[in-house]
Here is the input.
Amino acid sequence: MSVIKPRTPTGTLELLPLDQIAFQDLLDTIRRNYERYGFLPVETPAFELSEVLLTKSGGETERQVYFVQSTGSLKQGDAPELALRFDLTVPLARYVAEHEHALSFPFRRYQIQRVYRGESAQRGRFREFYQCDIDIVGKDELSVRYDAELVAVIASIFDELAVGPFLIQLNNRKLMRGFFERLGIADAEQQTLVLREVDKLDKRGADYVRRTLAGEGFGLAEAAIEAILGFVSKRSGSLAEARAMLGELGGGNAQLEAGITELGEVLDMLEGLGVPESRYALNFSIARGLDYYTGTVYETTLTEHPGIGSVCSGGRYDNLASHYTRSKLPGVGISIGASRLYWQLREAGLIGSAESTVQVLVTQMDPKLMPEYLKLARELRTAGINAEMVMDAGKLGKQLKYADKAGIRFAVILGEDELARGAVMVKDLRKQEQFETPRGELIKALRVEIEQAIALGELRRRGKAS
Here is the structure.
């Protein structure tokens, strides 16, 4: 029988255990901060009905969708009724519309699950990846104050991740559309096209945007183009500068004035929420490419690693579930592509492998003492210390080598001599040091050692990121 070569499918993130723990730590940090701000968990199926998922025909999204079909349906030539979700926003829209009468509004949910896209195979781009989303959905209306709260959530997450300085960049689509309207670009469709090009400014540069806006399909006057480029080049460096930027814009139409008012209220709320001024700034070039954003938009970047790009983005939308209900459900949300973020942080040396979640290995010195080893392991676990036990006898050196390779820091050693003295030996495999402790003091001694190791590891991690 031929042996099939084991291969991981391209576009997937498959990790060794200690790296998986580091990735899980990242997910846990995000989840912990979402819950800290009052968001509730939701999970939806990996696949949705095709007619629900694909609310628009054609386009880039549909070309990237993975369809799901049973073998029986495939043989019959039936069109696939199911498709894997490509983001968490469409499933949320369906979920809120379906359960509208059972939910409390504003509805605050977080969702941390895998999504699937038929991406071209390339480094750092995944076909299966985790997204970590939060959204606040209102019924009929939703105060712009919630937009500011999401900035506080982002700041809390990246402060705790300790991956170095970061900047949450803010803008408002109403403000941008109002500015275009003041320049004479009044058609909504043309405004959308201009917004898409402006969103490419940081990636493609001003000359590219200038040529595009002057070319076929746009044909904007030179004065209008220069006014747009001047507008989108504005950045704030402090809260006072941000307020001054808004004050200098003037008015002229309802869209522009609404955008100025909304961003001003967001800034006031950020001050009240205690978000440090160094964590956020206005950036009038931030547009976000997705058409459904209608108000505040966000992009977060790591200051010392601009090549990574946006690590958290999102924005405000007027009506989340218009395809599935007649109710008006405005909302605001953000998304973190956790798989890509983890991969980028690891490539940049900002995150490494984690310690094993197993804190102690109970070694086996003498098979006749198995009842003592079982009792010892049980006591450790009851005390909340994660313990693995060696079940097969072997040389102690081999057992310690196994623990070190598996990332287990502490080993407890109990032989006839220790048993006779009522003692246990504890070996720290990182420091290559060991000490003896009375049997009754083992739990207390291990807790002290484990807490010191955790505190030192956190100091080193934060020192590396600062």
Summary: The chain has a mean pLDDT of 91.
